[in-house]
Each structure stands twice: as structure tokens, then as C-alpha cells.
């Protein structure tokens, strides 16, 4: 077929308009579902409008800034946010939304999600009464000093000490070795005035393990470090990620603090130096679990941004084959593109909803902890550990898949996804390295299995949501046999049960072979267990759609997204399902082909709604900050305009010409025996 001659830039706008006209869903209805209500969406939208119209929050020069400039800008953004809070009478929730909307890794984030919650949860009532209001109003800035140069995830081997001095009723904080230096601490390098320090409690020469202490780091008069404390920034991070955050180091040289600055809501030290144990060994985990719970929601919204940018670009980018309209085909129409991008869309929808549920569960647990009730702590720890691994690993992979789907232009900083990737990449390490957390998930699973079968009559009602899949192992066990058609795969009951069987069988197999586990078993089991839990939650999301989402078309579109999540999750778990003979052919041939056909058909059904489903996230161009994800679709125009702002383009001839380029040219011409004699052209 002969291709038409057309204006490629103008066509991008037409293609985007056509994609929006094609979608059958009411975008506003789905958007309200994602934001939990129309009221929450309107509140957020009004905040975004304030920010994007304020010149302080201009992003046009961000990609050209040095590390120091990005830190300085980050602090200016933070200061302006709190000015606006006061001017507009924003609530604490409104302000949190504003900070999250900035898509910057700011030092204040560590104050809000690590320092303040830990202080409030674990500080004694008298200490919270003394400093709580000051912390809440940011009269002091805080950070959380746990990781050291020599140890990170292995908290039990931290070297910083806090020795109690009964004579003066003080603790002495000390860094005895270079490897005991606190390291990677966000907001410590240049910002924080105070910190919660994780240190080994030493009583009468006995090491009682890590505890938390409230320590002033800098003068409130001139911001200089206090005597005995050496503080600085650890330097640039990989790929220029976390540019505005001053990840720092600190060393303490026998720094004394008052006894009441130990966070002693649970564990306590008497005035004469006797130790009073907490009622539960892991009560101090509350702050860490809070951060992990919030990582699920944050990861979901980040994947939503990646999906929005890449799907919009894929919709307007034409390349390759000539379609029936005489134009090159839109790359989103190629299976190799939509097969990569639509699962990312499904991940974002699932994790946004899951994060909301998890945050509610955490609030319930925190209320129980405040009363000394630890009954929900173990389940929350197991759940958040698994989901932290699953969401962060998925998010890192999805952002890069989305970037690569956009070809060469995806590598431009102006695409926005490279910056997003570099900022999100460390999420697989902070708040618990994923490979270490995998082991904790597996330990919890094996403990649940042992507990279930420790009784002569295993009772499935004793299982928690994170271990509910183990009910399948209670005798009489019905040997599973799945050989579904393409149509049967789209029944969520089938896929959820498959994922639960996978989890049950890999956990059972590990228990049988625990004395000689294979090399990757902890990662496989952890993933299977977490995905079984999420699958059941997705089933509940599907069941609740009619009650929570008005409109049959809207329900069907979101239902398809949830089912795509289940299908692609099963696809990634096929090795386990085939290994245990759960999925097998009854007539020969590739039994997995029907699954992949079902995925293709479902993707083709979702495709016309893809722009509507991404528009439902409600992101403005200012929020996305991506030339390739602009709402009007005119990506080439946006990319051209961005390039004109490059500082190198301020001069026609670069400074390097006289210093380096011209000498090289003259040397080369001389060596070649060519004399230009002032000519501009050969």
C-alpha cells in the first residue's frame, strides 16, 4: 500500500484526539474511583493548580541543574509549600498531597515519613509532649539515622553505641569505628537539626541490642553541627538520582544526651540503669512498617505515570508498516508494544487500590499498638515485607520497560522516565533489601505452615490473609489439574486459585527440602506467596466493582485491567506451575499457549480504552514533566521546544572551540597536508 504524505507533527495531535474520542468510558467516573471519591479528586486538583501556576515550582530548568542547585531548589520548594499551607489554610493532608505532587525526592520527606512517625510511635508521652508540636510544625527538622557505613539491613550488627551513665543520668552516643559512621541518611547531610539515632544500648558493659535515641545534631542558632558531631553529605548518587536529597554521614564522639531522650514508650531504662523489656520484641517495627505500607501506594502512582507517558507516546508515534489509512502504524498497535505497556497499566491500578487497603490496615494496627496490643503486628510485618519487595521490584522493571518502549527518544531526559527510574531504583534496597526481605517472607510462610499442621485437625480459620493459600494443603488434598481454554483463563476464580496453589506447593516443597534448599528458592517462594495474597485481594476488588464504580462500561474496563494483572502474573509463574504439574496438557501440545492467546485477546479489548484509563489518573503536563507524554499528543513539538532550552545552545560556537576543537582541527589538517588558508569550506 502506498503511504500518504502528511504532517507528522500535526498527525500526533489528531491521533491523540481520535484516541480520546474512541474510548467508551467516562474518564471522570474511573478517576473518582482511583482517588476514592470525587471530593478527594477535586481537593487534589485544586492543590495541583496552585502549584503549577506558582513560578517557584517551574520545572523547565530542572534537567540542566547541578547537584547543589537541585538541593537548593528542593529546599526552596519545601519552604514555599509550607508558606502556601499557611496562606491557603491547607490541612496536613492537603500539604502531604502537595509534597507528593512535586515528584521530587525532598529531604522533608524523611522528616515526614521516617522521623516524625517513629518519634510519635515510640517516644515516651512526656518526650512527645515536649517536642511533638515543634516537630509537627517543622520548628525542627528531623532524620532517621540507622544505616551505617559497615552495616545496613543487618540492624543487629550496627556498631554505634549508646552507653548509659547512671551518675549523670545521660546516654553517651559514640561511633567507635569508621564503619560505625552513619551513612546514606536522608536529610542528614545539610538539612536536619535533630535525628532519631539507632544505637546499641550498653548497660553496665552489656550489649542489649539496637534502640532509638532522640539527638540534636545542629545548632538552632546558626545550623552548625554540635560539638562532638561530624556531619556531611555522602556525594552524588547513581544516575544523578535523589539529587535534591542530602543523604549524609555522621560520626559521634562521646556525645551526651539526657536520659529521657531515649525513645522509651516500650523499652525503658530505669534511673539506676536497669533494663525493662518491651512487651513484644518487634514493637519498634511500627515506623518501618508505616514506610513500607506507603511504598505500595507510591509505587502504584509512579507506575501510573510511566504507563501514561509511554501509552500516550505509543499512541501518537507512527513507525514501520503502512496501515489501511495509508499512514505508518501507531506503535501501540504492535503486539510487541502493547504486550509490554498494558501490564504496567494493570500493575498501577492494582497497587493503587492495594495501597489504600494496606494503609487502612496499618492505621488499625497502629491504634492497637498504642494500647499495647501486638496481635496484628506479625501479619502486618509479613504482608508489608512481601509487598515492599513485589511493588519495588515491579516498579523498577516497569519504568525501564516503559522507557525502552519509546525507542531512542525514551533515552532523552526530556522523556522524564530516566529521571523517574533513577529516583525509584534505590527502593529495592532502602527500608529492607529485597533479597533479605524475601527470607523474612519465607520464614513467615514456613512458620504459618508449621502452625497450621501442628494440630491433629488443621483449622483453616486460623490462617491470616497472608497465609490463606495454605488451606489448600489440608487433607483431603485434591490434586489440581488445569488445562483451560483461552476463555476459561479470563475467569478470575481460575487464575486466583492457580496462584494460590503455586504458593502452597512451593512453600510445602521448601519445608520438605529445608535442609538442602536450592539457590533461588527464597526469591521464588517469596514472590509466589506475595502474588497469591495480591491475587486474592484483586478478586475482592473485582467483586466490589459494582458497589464502588458506577457504569457498566467503566466496570468492564477496570475489570479487564484487573484480569490482565492476574493473567500476566500467572504467566510469570508458569515455571512453578509446570514444575508441579498443576498446569498440564490433556491432549499434547503447548498448554500455555491458551494463556498467551487469552492475554493477547484481552490486550486488544483494553487497547481502545487505554488513553481513557490513563487519563483517569488525572496527571497534568506539569506533573508528568515529559515531552513524550504531553496531553495534546504533540510530542515532536514539545521535544523540539525543550531542546532549545539546552544551555549549550545559548552560543552558536561553544567555548570549547577555541580551547580544544580548533587546535584539534588545525593539527589534523596539518597532518593531512591540507591548508585551509582562511576558507570556511573545503
From TrEMBL:
Q: What are the names of the required cofactors?
A: FAD
Listed binding positions for FAD are 147, 186
Q: Which residues form a coiled coil?
A: none
One of the record's GO molecular function terms: fatty acid binding
Q: Which residues form the Acyl-coenzyme A oxidase N-terminal domain?
A: 33-137
GO CC terms, sorted: peroxisome
Pfam families referenced in this protein's UniProt entry, alphabetically: ACOX, ACOX_C_alpha1, Acyl-CoA_ox_N
Signal sequence residues: none
Q: Which domain of life is it from?
A: Eukaryota
Report the residue ranges that make up the Acyl-CoA oxidase C-alpha1 domain in this protein.
285-445
Q: Which SUPFAM superfamilies match?
A: Acyl-CoA dehydrogenase C-terminal domain-like, Acyl-CoA dehydrogenase NM domain-like
Concerning InterPro entries, the annotation shows: ACOX_C_alpha1, Acyl-CoA_ox_N, Acyl-CoA_Oxase/DH_mid-dom_sf, Acyl-CoA_oxidase, Acyl-CoA_oxidase_C, AcylCo_DH-like_C, AcylCoA_DH/ox_N_sf, AcylCoA_DH/oxidase_NM_dom_sf
Domain spans labelled Acyl-CoA oxidase C-terminal = 494-665
Active site (UniProt): 431
Q: Which GO terms describe its biological process?
A: fatty acid beta-oxidation using acyl-CoA oxidase; lipid homeostasis
Q: Which reaction does it catalyse?
A: a 2,3-saturated acyl-CoA + O2 = a (2E)-enoyl-CoA + H2O2
Q: In which pathway does it act?
A: Lipid metabolism; peroxisomal fatty acid beta-oxidation
Q: What is its main location?
A: other
Question: Which keywords appear in this protein's UniProt record, sorted alphabetically?
Answer: FAD, Fatty acid metabolism, Flavoprotein, Lipid metabolism, Oxidoreductase, Peroxisome
Cited PANTHER family: ELECTRON TRANSPORT OXIDOREDUCTASE, PEROXISOMAL ACYL-COENZYME A OXIDASE 1
Name of the protein in its database record: Acyl-coenzyme A oxidase
Natural source organism: Ephemerocybe angulata
Amino acid at each position: 500500500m502506498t503511504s500518504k504524505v502528511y504532517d507528522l507533527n500535526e498527525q500526533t495531535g489528531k491521533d491523540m484526539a481520535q484516541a480520546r474520542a474512541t474510548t467508551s468510558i467516562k474518564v471522570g467516573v474511573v478517576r473518582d474511583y482511583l482517588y476514592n471519591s470525587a471530593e478527594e479528586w477535586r481537593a487534589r486538583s485544586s492543590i495541583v493548580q496552585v502549584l503549577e501556576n506558582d513560578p517557584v515550582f517551574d520545572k523547565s530548568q530542572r534537567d540542566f541543574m547541578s547537584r547543589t542547585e537541585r538541593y537548593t531548589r528542593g529546599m526552596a520548594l519545601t519552604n514555599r509549600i509550607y508558606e502556601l499551607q499557611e496562606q491557603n489554610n491547607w490541612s496536613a493532608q492537603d500539604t502531604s498531597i502537595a509534597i507528593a505532587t512535586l515528584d521530587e525526592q525532598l529531604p522533608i520527606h524523611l522528616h515526614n515519613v521516617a522521623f516524625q512517625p517513629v518519634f510519635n510511635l515510640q517516644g515516651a508521652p512526656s518526650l512527645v509532649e515536649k517536642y511533638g508540636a515543634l516537630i509537627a510544625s517543622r520548628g525542627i527538622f528531623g532524620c532517621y539515622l540507622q544505616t551505617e557505613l559497615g552495616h545496613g539491613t543487618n540492624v543487629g550488627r550496627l556498631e554505634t553505641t549508646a552507653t548509659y551513665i547512671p551518675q549523670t543520668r545521660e546516654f553517651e552516643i559514640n561511633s567507635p569505628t569508621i564503619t560505625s559512621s552513619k551513612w546514606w541518611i536522608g536529610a542528614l547531610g545539610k538539612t536536619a537539626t535533630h535525628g532519631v539515632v539507632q544505637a546499641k544500648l550498653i548497660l553496665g558493659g552489656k550489649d542489649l541490642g539496637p534502640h532509638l535515641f532522640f539527638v540534636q545534631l545542629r545548632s538552632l542558632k546558626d545550623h552548625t553541627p554540635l560539638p562532638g558531631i561530624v556531619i556531611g553529605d555522602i556525594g552524588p548518587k547513581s544516575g544523578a538520582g535523589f539529587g535534591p536529597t542530602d543523604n549524609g554521614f555522621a560520626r559521634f564522639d562521646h556525645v551526651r544526651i539526657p536520659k529521657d531522650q531515649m525513645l522509651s514508650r516500650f523499652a525503658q531504662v530505669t534511673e539506676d540503669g536497669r533494663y525493662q523489656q518491651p512487651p513484644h520484641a518487634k514493637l519498634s517495627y511500627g515506623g518501618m512498617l508505616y514506610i513500607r505500607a506507603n511504598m505500595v501506594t507510591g509505587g502504584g502512582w509512579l507506575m501510573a505515570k510511566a504507563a501514561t507517558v509511554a501509552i500516550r507516546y505509543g499512541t501518537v508515534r507512527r513507525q514501520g508498516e503502512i496501515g489501511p489509512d495509508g499512514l505508518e502504524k501507531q506503535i501501540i498497535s504492535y503486539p510487541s508494544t502493547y504486550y509490554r505497556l498494558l501490564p504496567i497499566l494493570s500493575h498501577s491500578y492494582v497497587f493503587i487500590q492495594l495501597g489504600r487497603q494496606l494503609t487502612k490496615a496499618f492505621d488499625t494496627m497502629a491504634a492497637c499498638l498504642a494500647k499495647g496490643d501486638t496481635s496484628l503486628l506479625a501479619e502486618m510485618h509479613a504482608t508489608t515485607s512481601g509487598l515492599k519487595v513485589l511493588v519495588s521490584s515491579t516498579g523498577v522493571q516497569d519504568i525501564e520497560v516503559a522507557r525502552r518502549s519509546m525507542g531512542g527518544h525514551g533515552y532523552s531526559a526530556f522523556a522524564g522516565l530516566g529521571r523517574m527510574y533513577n529516583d525509584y531504583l534505590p527502593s529495592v534496597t532502602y527500608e529492607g533489601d529485597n533479597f533479605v526481605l524475601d527470607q523474612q517472607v519465607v520464614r513467615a510462610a514456613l512458620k504459618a505452615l508449621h502452625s497450621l499442621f501442628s494440630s491433629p485437625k488443621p483449622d483453616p480459620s486460623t490462617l491470616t490473609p497472608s497465609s490463606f493459600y495454605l488451606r489448600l494443603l489440608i487433607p483431603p488434598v485434591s490434586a489440581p489439574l488445569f488445562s483451560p481454554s483461552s476463555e476459561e483463563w479470563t475467569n478470575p476464580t481460575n487464575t486466583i486459585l492457580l496462584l494460590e496453589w503455586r504458593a502452597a506447593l512451593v512453600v510445602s516443597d521448601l519445608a520438605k527440602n529445608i535442609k538442602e534448599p536450592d539457590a533461588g528458592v527464597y526469591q521464588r517462594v517469596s514472590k509466589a506467596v506475595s502474588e497469591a495474597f495480591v491475587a486474592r485481594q484483586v478478586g475482592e476488588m473485582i467483586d466490589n466493582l459494582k458497589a464502588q464504580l458506577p457504569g457498566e462500561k467503566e466496570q468492564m474496563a477496570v475489570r479487564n485491567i484487573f484480569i490482565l494483572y492476574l493473567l500476566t502474573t500467572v504467566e510469570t509463574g508458569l515455571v512453578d506451575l509446570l514444575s508441579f504439574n498443576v498446569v498440564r496438557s490433556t491432549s499434547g501440545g503447548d498448554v500455555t499457549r491458551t494463556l498467551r492467546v487469552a492475554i493477547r485477546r484481552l490486550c486488544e479489548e483494553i487497547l481502545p480504552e487505554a488513553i481513557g484509563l490513563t487519563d483517569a489518573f488525572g496527571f497534568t503536563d506539569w506533573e508528568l514533566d515529559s515531552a513524550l507524554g504531553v496531553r495534546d499528543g504533540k510530542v515532536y513539538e514539545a521535544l523540539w521546544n525543550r531542546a532549545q532550552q539546552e544551555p549549550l545552545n545559548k552560543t552558536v560556537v561553544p567555548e570549547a572551540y577555541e580551547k580544544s576543537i580548533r587546535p584539534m582541527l588545525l593539527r589534523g589538517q596539518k597532518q593531512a597536508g591540507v591548508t585551509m588558508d582562511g576558507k570556511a569550506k573545503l
